[in-house]
C-alpha cells in the first residue's frame, strides 16, 4: 500500500465511503444502546479512545511535517512511536519486519547492557524471530525477568505480526548464558500477548525530568522505587537494601556506585545493582513506551481475583 501512486490516493468510491463513516458510526452506537445503558457507555468510550488516539497521531504528524519537509519526512514518521503504531495497524509502515525488529533492539540495547546482557538478531523467518543473547547476569537472578520483559516488549511493539521468538544460546564458551534458552520469552512463544509473571507497565513521565547523577524516589502502584540516572540512562530499582533490609532513601550516587545511607554498602547500578558477597539490588524494567518512561511491576498476589 505504501507504493500507491500519489495521483491515485483515493478513488471516488473510497471517498464516498469515508464521507458516510460518521453515519455508520452513529448507527452502530444506536444499536449498542438497544443492549442497555452500560453497553452504550462502553461503545461511546471506545469511540472516544479511538478518536483521541488518531487525533494525537495526526497532531504528531503535523508537528513532524512542520519541522522539516523533504524526502526524510516518511522516515521521521516511521520512527515516531505513536505514528508508527497507526501505520502498522493499516499496513502502511514503510519498513519490513526485519528492519523494525532490528531498530527496536537497538533502542533497548543500552538498557540490556546496564544489566550485563546483549542481544543479536539472527534472523526473521515468517512470523518467527531468532535471537542470540550474550553477556553475564549471574550476580542478579532477577535480571532474567528484566531482560525478558524488555526484549518481549520491544519486539511486540515493533512487529505485532511476530508470534514466536526462538532463542539461540550463542555466547563465548567462557561466559555463562544470560538467560536460560528454555525459559526466556516463554509467554511470547505461547501466545504473544501476556507476561508469565503478571507484570503491568506503569507510565512515570516524571522520570524524564531527572538530570545525570540524580537519585530520586517514587511510589508507583504502591511500590517504592529508587531511580538513578547515569548519563542518558535512567535505571530503576526497588527501594530496598538487601544488606541492612532498610530503605535506600537518601542514597547518593558517585559515578556508578550507589551507597546505602544506613549500612554504607556500595552497589554498582550499571551492572544490575551488584554488591559485595553476591548481594544485589532488585532491578525493574524501565522502557520508553510511546515516548513515556514506563516501569513494569508485578501485580500483587490475588489482584483481579
From TrEMBL:
<dbReference type="InterPro" id="IPR034904">
    <property type="entry name" value="FSCA_dom_sf"/>
</dbReference>
<dbReference type="Pfam" id="PF01106">
    <property type="entry name" value="NifU"/>
</dbReference>
<protein>
    <recommendedName>
        <fullName>Rieske domain-containing protein</fullName>
    </recommendedName>
</protein>
<dbReference type="InterPro" id="IPR001075">
    <property type="entry name" value="NIF_FeS_clus_asmbl_NifU_C"/>
</dbReference>
<keyword id="KW-0001">2Fe-2S</keyword>
<dbReference type="GO" id="GO:0051537">
    <property type="term" value="F:2 iron, 2 sulfur cluster binding"/>
</dbReference>
<dbReference type="GO" id="GO:0004497">
    <property type="term" value="F:monooxygenase activity"/>
</dbReference>
<dbReference type="GO" id="GO:0005506">
    <property type="term" value="F:iron ion binding"/>
</dbReference>
<dbReference type="Pfam" id="PF00355">
    <property type="entry name" value="Rieske"/>
</dbReference>
<keyword id="KW-0408">Iron</keyword>
<keyword id="KW-0411">Iron-sulfur</keyword>
<comment type="function">
    <text>May be involved in the formation or repair of [Fe-S] clusters present in iron-sulfur proteins.</text>
</comment>
<dbReference type="GO" id="GO:0016226">
    <property type="term" value="P:iron-sulfur cluster assembly"/>
</dbReference>
<dbReference type="GO" id="GO:0016705">
    <property type="term" value="F:oxidoreductase activity, acting on paired donors, with incorporation or reduction of molecular oxygen"/>
</dbReference>
<feature type="domain" description="Rieske">
    <location>
        <begin position="201"/>
        <end position="295"/>
    </location>
</feature>
<keyword id="KW-0479">Metal-binding</keyword>
<dbReference type="InterPro" id="IPR017941">
    <property type="entry name" value="Rieske_2Fe-2S"/>
</dbReference>
<dbReference type="InterPro" id="IPR036922">
    <property type="entry name" value="Rieske_2Fe-2S_sf"/>
</dbReference>
Amino acid at each position: 500500500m505504501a507504493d500507491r501512486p500519489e495521483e491515485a490516493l483515493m478513488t471516488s468510491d473510497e471517498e464516498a465511503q469515508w464521507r458516510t463513516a460518521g453515519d455508520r458510526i452513529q448507527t452502530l452506537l444506536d444499536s449498542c444502546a438497544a443492549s442497555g445503558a452500560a453497553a452504550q457507555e462502553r461503545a461511546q468510550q471506545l469511540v472516544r479512545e479511538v478518536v483521541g488516539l488518531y487525533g494525537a497521531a495526526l497532531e504528531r504528524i503535523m508537528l513532524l511535517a512542520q519541522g522539516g519537509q523533504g524526502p526524510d519526512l516518511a522516515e521521521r514518521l516511521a520512527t515516531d512511536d505513536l505514528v508508527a503504531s497507526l501505520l502498522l495497524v493499516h499496513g502502511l509502515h514503510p519498513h519490513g519486519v526485519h528492519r523494525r525488529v532490528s531498530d527496536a533492539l537497538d533502542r533497548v540495547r543500552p538498557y540490556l547492557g546496564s544489566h550485563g546482557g546483549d542481544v543479536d538478531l539472527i534472523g526473521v523467518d515468517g512470523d518467527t524471530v531468532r535471537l542470540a543473547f550474550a553477556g553475564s547476569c549471574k550476580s542478579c537472578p532477577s535480571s532474567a525477568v528484566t531482560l525478558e520483559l524488555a526484549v518481549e516488549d520491544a519486539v511486540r511493539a515493533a512487529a505485532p505480526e511476530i508470534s514466536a521468538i526462538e532463542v539461540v544460546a550463542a555466547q563465548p564458551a567462557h561466559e555463562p548464558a544470560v538467560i536460560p534458552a528454555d525459559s526466556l520469552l516463554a509467554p511470547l512463544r505461547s501466545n504473544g500477548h501476556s507476561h508469565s509473571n503478571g507484570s503491568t507497565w506503569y507510565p512515570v513521565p516524571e522520570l524524564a525530568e531527572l538530570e545525570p547523577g540524580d537519585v530520586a524516589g517514587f511510589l508507583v502502584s504502591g511500590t517504592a522505587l529508587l531511580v538513578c540516572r547515569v548519563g542518558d540512562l535512567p535505571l530503576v530499582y526497588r527501594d530496598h537494601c538487601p544488606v541492612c533490609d532498610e530503605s535506600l532513601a537518601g542514597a547518593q550516587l558517585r559515578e556508578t556506585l550507589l551507597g546505602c545511607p544506613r549500612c554504607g554498602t556500595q552497589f554498582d547500578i550499571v551492572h544490575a545493582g551488584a554488591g559485595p558477597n553476591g548481594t544485589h539490588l532488585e532491578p525493574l524494567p524501565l522502557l520508553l513506551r510511546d515516548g513515556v518512561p514506563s516501569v513494569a511491576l508485578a501485580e500483587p498476589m490475588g489482584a483481579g481475583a
